[in-house]
Amino acid sequence: MITVKGLEKSFGETHVLRGIDHQQARGEAAVLIGPSGCGKSTFLRCLNLLETPTAGTIILDGITITGGGGDAPAEFEERQRQARRRTGMVFQSFNLFPHRTVLENVIEAPIHVKGLQRAEAVESGMNLLRKVGLEARSGFLPGALSGGQQQRVAIARALAMQPDIMLFDEPTSALDPELREEVLEVIRQLRDEGMTMLIVTHEMEFARQIAHQVLFFDGGLVVEAGPPERVFGAPSQERTRAFLRKIIPNPAS
Amino acid sequence: MKKFFSVLLALAGPVWAAAASSLEDVKQRGVLRWGADAEGGAPYVFHDPAAPDRLLGFEVELAEELARRLAVRPQLVQENWDMLVPALKQGAFDVILNGLERTPENHQKLELSRPYFVYHQQIITRADTTQIKSLDDLKGRTVAALSGSVSFRILAARPEINMKIYSGNAQSFQDLKIGRLDAVIVDSPVASHFARNDPELRFGGPPFAPGYYAIGLPLGDAELLGALDKAIGALLANGTLERIYRKYDLWGPEQAGLAQVRLVDAPREGPSSTLAHWQRYLPLLLRASLTTIWLTVAGMGLAMALGLAIALSRLYGPRTLRWIATAYTEVMRGTPLLIQLYFIYYGLAQQLGLRMGEYAAAVLALGLNYAANEAENYRAGINAVARGQWEAATALGMSRWLTLRRIILPQAFRLVVPPVSNDFIAMFKDSSIVSVIAIVELTKEYQIRATDTGDYLGLGVMTAALYFGMSYAASLLMQRFEHRLQHDHR
Fold first, then answer.
1. Residue B14: pLDDT above 60?
2. How confident is the model over B220-234, as a mean pLDDT?
């Protein structure tokens, strides 16, 4: 489903990604952990080409979406379209459109990008809002909602484009602790339905529960990868152990 | 600005009215200050084209002779012609000596000397116009009058003639030659100086509506008036006036008859404020307000549309377009609106033969000028929309143009409502500048009526109230609009 080979990204002199390899099967949830500034978010943003990789290959669902540098603008735009049609993204700061109601946020892209009829878009939009428990808020402006509710709308908005892959970039980091669970619950539900997902998070307990594989990023590289019981329970790398010691005060529990 | 300042002083005038100068003051000072407009003032008062420091004109020589009779020196004080009366009342000079017509209206406001010149009105047309011989032939034509002059009163009494009001003769002849006007009505000295030897122009019929020029003094200044009357009589009797007028080709039998003229003026009515007759003046001012509103709405509409295009070019256009948009903004912001207006109205017509109507030119100038401001407003507004909005829309597969149109601009518009409404209100007031291309909007109407009646205060109150009404209404409208934008969907 997802194949990444030798992915690199630099901002000027700063090498943020220094050769990432990653394999992920359909229906798998991958959780990306690591200290801040290690490149996890940039990796996620390369997958839908919000950032343009400097080198390497990304293959989504058999379609190569990076061809290195030197291709014509038209080709590049076509690959952007391909990548974005297959992925949905949820941001740390929600990024809902503040001038549109909850429902309008959800149906905007289906109508104007996919060309759906309004009635059709509204019907599936309301279904998605029901799924995230916000059907009753469909006519509200985002500003009238709590952070947790806004993030659930953002998830529904991404799902409305029927992506094959969902990218979550720290979906609960901007939320008060008591609001996190309602968002995590929605993600958990998606995982159980078999959605292919990549999640950047600092919620270790949540990661342990839902991940099929955990990727530990540090210094622009995947230092350690594997099933959660191995990465959390018996990390092979000293850097992983040091990170986990810092983030989980009592690893024995 | 100068005009505004003198209006202000004229408003304050009555407070100092007691300090009106008289013969004693002039003699003590040794200087007779005479007010006139030397801008395009031939053959009355004008700067020698060969030596711009030197003054020429039959009134310059008349002033010299009169001053000599009073044993003082003459000193010209420059003032716009249609502002001479308020400037005199404010004390800027001792007398008006500049083609001041001896009319009952002027007699209401001023002491008038015995006549020193007989003038007529003269219709001037282009050389190829042959069918205009009298006022009756001007029906349905566009005809220029000088603001505050007798020609203005003549045309104002004939609504079937489309009058355009100018503050100088040079501009009206210019517009006549390029076809914006069908005719110009001027006093006979102007006609003989400018039109007689100009192959492009011709006299439309014989002279008509004779009248006298007189020297104007502040009301009650009997001493100086008496001295000037005596001096004029002497200059007539000893042939000095004839010598001067012949020099400027203005002498004729009617001037020779001046020595015998004895005029009896009707008694003055008491001073009355136009406020007491507001029913007469308010409708005139209201009609002019409609012009102001129309100019502002059209100008602002153009500015907002063009401003958006400029802002988008600057933010997202290819390099050349970006550069052009930036240059446009800087040049339009960095040069005066008045110059831009002259450039569009006169400059384009002269150099490129691009002749547009005065309203088109006015809206274009206001719109082009304000577009630079609006572009900066929009640019700031677009930049103020959070970056995450772009990313969210992009991740959903929305194109750049779709994102801009559906996500970014609607949010930016909300942000720019306050600065744009500021500019909207500012344009109500800035639009008064277009009166220089013969459009009568509210400020010009005020000037015309105030010159006519001498009541700058009463008309000023009415005019200010109208401007305030327009601005306040616009402000309320914008507030409602802003409120609605922020609370829709609720």
1. no
2. 92
Residues 6+ apart with CB under 8 A from B98: B34, B35, B36, B37, B41, B44, B45, B59, B81, B84
Q: The dihedral of CA B417, B418, B422, B425: what is its sign? A: positive
Measured in whole angstroms, the distance separating CA B116 from the mean position of its chain's CA atoms is: 28
Neighbours of B256 (CB within 10 A): 14
pTM of the full structure: 0.78
CA–CA separation, B486 vs B410, rounded Å?
11
Distance CA A15, CA A5 (A): 16
Query: Is residue A38 domain-resident?
Result: no
Query: Shortest CA distance to B82 belongs to which of B447, B462, B464, B435?
Result: B447
Please give the tally of structural domains in chain A.
1
Domain around A125: 94-162
Model pLDDT, residue A67? 60
Cα separation of B439 and B442, whole Å? 10
Of A17, A18, A21, nearest to A3 (Cα)?
Answer: A21
Q: Which of B391, B398, B406 sits opposite A91 (nearest CB)?
A: B391
Secondary structure element (H or E) that encloses residue B210, with its range? strand B208-213
Render pLDDT for B177-210 as a digit per residue (tens, 0 to 9): 988 899 999 999 999 888 888 999 999 999 999 9
* Yes or no, beta carbons of B389 and A101 under 8 Å apart: no
CA distance B479 to B417: 9
Substitution target in B387, B394, B396 with the highest count of A β-carbons within 10 Å is B396
Residue A148 lies in a domain: yes
Please give the full DSSP string across B56-104, using - where no structure is assigned: ESHHHHHHHHHHHHHTSEEEEEE--GGGHHHHHHHTS-SEE-SS-B--H
The three-class DSSP label of residue B456 is helix
User: Tokens 């039959």 — which residue?
Assistant: B58
Q: Is residue A105 part of a domain?
A: yes
Residues 6+ apart with CB under 8 A from B132: B123, B125, B138, B141, B182, B183, B204, B205
pLDDT at B19 over 70: no
Residue A251 has pLDDT above 80, yes or no: no
A117 located within any domain? yes
Q: CA nearest B490 in A: which residue? A: A140
The two three-digit tokens of residue B8, written as one number: 């202000």
